[in-house]
Protein 1
Amino acid sequence: MTEVTPPALDISHLSVNFENGSGELQALDDVTFQVWPQEFVCLLGPSGSGKSTLLRVLAGLVPPTRGEIRFSGDHPPRIGYVFQHANLMPWRTVIENIMLPLELQGVSPPEARRQAQTWVERVGLSGFESAWPRDLSGGMAQRVAIARALIHDPDLLLLDEPFGALDALTRERMGAELLHLWQSQRKTVLMVTHSISEALLLADRVLVFTPRPGRVSLDLTVPLPRPRSDDLRYTLEFAHLARQLRQAIG
Ligand code: ADP
């Protein structure tokens, strides 16, 4: 018999309703999909299609109204979460922000600092250990947020438009850096983006969501070989996939 790898994440008939003053608002409707270990999945769709809500449900911040979520593994999953804005603590330096999750886990400060130093280097911030968040560019702040999300070795990395507030060139560079990091760390990743080309450059699969209530209208496996470089954007295959996603978004 062949061993079948269980999905890292199994979402089954998930619906989420919110109470709003005049009644209920349905954000997600009967969403079912699975994510495989170490897979990089992008979520695309118009604003309001429930993509952030889905991440918040996975992080345990919003309860599902109906349906089920199952994580593989014998412990509750550790989640790393990165938002559009880095949300760094302004009174802590770069390295102190990165070591925070370890401190909260009870790791001793010298050990937390040692591990944070490794992450400072991995995300290209050597020399900025003692800088304050207010002195960082948007891209640098997001690097700190990504390091902070990865330092406690999460089972699942949730990225909610992490580069949405950056200029186009910084965004491209950050995408390439994230890809590089993912290739060395191999986390299971769910990332919300509005950018079709970002999704195609990064993801193994792209899920397209319908306007509210969000349902999965397309589950596209990205057949582009890895490692992927920016030049892929100019190929016919890329254009063909981009058109498919564009049409699915509507
Ligand atoms: P997306 O990330 O795709 O832009 P969201 O998940 O942010 O979409 O939002 C989906 C819908 O749910 C939107 O109409 C939004 O206004 C609504 N919504 C999100 N969070 C709440 C909440 N806590 N209370 C009420 N409505 C909410």
Note: Residues 18, 20, 25, 27, 45, 47-53, 212 surround adenosine-5'-diphosphate (CB under 6 Å).
Protein 2
Amino acid sequence: MKYIECYRDPELVHGLLKSVSFLAERLAGNVTIMEICGTHTHAMGRWGLRRLVPRNVRLISGPGCPVCVTSAADLDTALYLAGLPGVIFTTFGDMLRVPGTGGRCLQDLRAEGADVRVVASPLDAVQIARDNPGREVIFLGIGFETTAPAVAAAIITAKKKDVRNLSVFSIHKTIPQAIKALLDDPSLSIDGFLCPGHVSVITGVAAYDVIPQVRRAAVITGFEPVDIVEGILMLLKQILSGRFEVAVQYERTVKREGNLKARMLMNEVFVPCDAEWRGLGMIGGSGLRIKDVYRDYDALERFSVPPLESVEPPGCSCGEVLKGIVTPKECKLFGKFCTPANPVGPCMVSSEGTCAAFYRYGMNRE
Ligand code: SF4
């Protein structure tokens, strides 16, 4: 705790904010900075940082919550698999209440009798499969580079231990391709990115090279207030100087080369594939499919899923929220018809969702 406290020091934060204001006065106009990661969004809300930065530094939230960016089609496929007779469907807890087409969620299926179990780790799913040899166990593989190595390790473990009744529905996604899609989108104009600290621990720094290549600023940032404000300061320095790079503010955790061992695990089991992101659409090479050598562990190989007609929740603006085009408060349903207790879209369900952050912390700027 003592170690963390120095990154929450109010005097340090205010000193950094003064420097941010000093640089902001020297900007030619407004700048837009996107925080990619939902953990950053919630930290900004928790510490009230959006209200403290100068008004010409516009902070917007991006697609960095894996639950939020899961497409309606993938959600419906997960619901279909979970409802198959005899299946034990295992998932992280934050997927339980995410509504698919028609508003049904895994929690509803469980209430109707489906065997849906929350696990803390993919290895728990392996153990459940070993404990239930007569039943099919499916694990919902969701998350970015932070989660995919653990899921890969679970699949490797299952194969080594000859656990044959486990399969994984992989809807993993990778962040750098999403950033490239944001940069390529002509409707967006983002001057700098606060890159996600946790993902960067795995990917390393070079994964974001596409950002400075198109003359945009990038800083890999930690999650405490000092980290975030220093990250914004470092972005403004790049923008003002015109010297763009992928800078690392979160040096206490992120190594430039990332975590090679974790990436080796991912590469052993997964291969990049196209993936559909809520709000961003289909992005080439942004998903992780299970390699053929592990195809016995691929739920989509093991079970036949019929064509499903998926539709987004009516009136929900999650797609626009995930690109920073609108803020949650600009969604007509926010706070009236969509709340954490009765969520309409995934951005209100997830503990990392932008709408949930705005609701919880009453963020009224941006
Ligand atoms: Fe979707 Fe609810 Fe957010 Fe509106 S407030 S965008 S309905 S999650």
Note: The longest strand covers residues 281-290.
